[in-house]
Design goal:
Layout lengths: L13 H8 L6 H9 L8 H9 L13 H5 L6 H17 L14 H12 L6 E7 L5 E9 L9 H11 L3 E7 L9 H17 L2 E8 L4 E3 L9
Parallel strand pairs: 3-4
Antiparallel strand pairs: 1-2, 1-3, 4-5
Helix pairs in contact: 2-3
């Protein structure tokens, strides 16, 4: 049976140690125990923290953990799982160079890259987003439209331009990630982009750019003269 928090001397409890010594003094185990708040019958919050940490190789892997995985660990219920996932997501958002896109007037490609590199750099699949803009290049909204290997049949113009009409957008920037870390476009990327540009020209809604996101770099079809007006 694990040691209960109430049985630990007050000055050795995670919350009290945080207050007295500062958050930097706490171990990963203690930080997670604070988020869990309580343990279960037979296991303290620190025991549950140790159990969770034993499931991963290093603390960075918590970036990829999800609700379903946490719920499989005995003693971690809905509330504890949600507390931890919320804390992880908040940490990600605090560290983003660009916190939001909506209402930003787009002046350069790097704004889009800085926003999406944090959002997509750890994804194991390709995620295809469309960023919708008004006449003054102000971003109205961004939408996740497809998940999976990007190809001609998956990325259907109907879905891309339907959202544009619903939002009253006059231009679109397509964004997707390459989990491989290589930002160079594939033949499928070129085919999808060419098709969307042609449809956009017919509908009067321009495809301004298609940006491929990787952790440390990106590829812009516009900057590389693969899209022209």
């Amino acid at each position: 049976m694990g040691v209960k928090i109430k049985d630990i001397p007050i000055d050795e409890r995670p919350v009290e140690r945080l207050i007295i010594n500062g958050v930097q003094a706490l171990s990963n185990e203690e930080l997670i125990a604070i988020l869990f708040k309580t343990g279960t019958r037979g296991s303290s919050a620190k025991d549950l923290s140790n159990e969770l940490l034993s499931k991963i190789d290093n603390i960075k892997q918590l970036n990829e953990i999800n609700f379903e995985t946490l719920r499989k660990i005995k003693g971690i219920g809905k509330s504890k799982a949600c507390n931890l996932i919320a804390a992880i997501e908040l940490g990600k958002r605090i560290n983003r160079e660009v916190d939001k896109l909506v209402d930003i007037r787009l002046t350069n490609t790097e704004i889009v890259y800085k926003y999406y590199k944090e959002k997509l750099c750890d994804k194991k699949q390709e995620y295809f987003y469309c960023v919708y803009l008004d006449n003054s290049k102000r971003i109205i909204q961004d939408k996740l439209l497809f998940i999976g290997t990007i190809n001609y049949s998956l990325v259907h113009p109907r879905e891309v331009f339907k959202e544009a009409y619903l939002l009253g957008a006059s231009a679109i920037i397509c964004v997707h990630n390459h989990p491989s870390g290589n930002p160079l476009p594939s033949k499928q990327d070129y085919d999808v982009t060419t098709n969307l540009v042609k449809v956009g020209d017919l509908l009067g809604i321009k495809i301004l750019d298609h940006i491929i996101i990787c952790k440390n770099n990106y590829y812009s079809f516009l900057e590389n003269n693969d899209i022209s007006f």
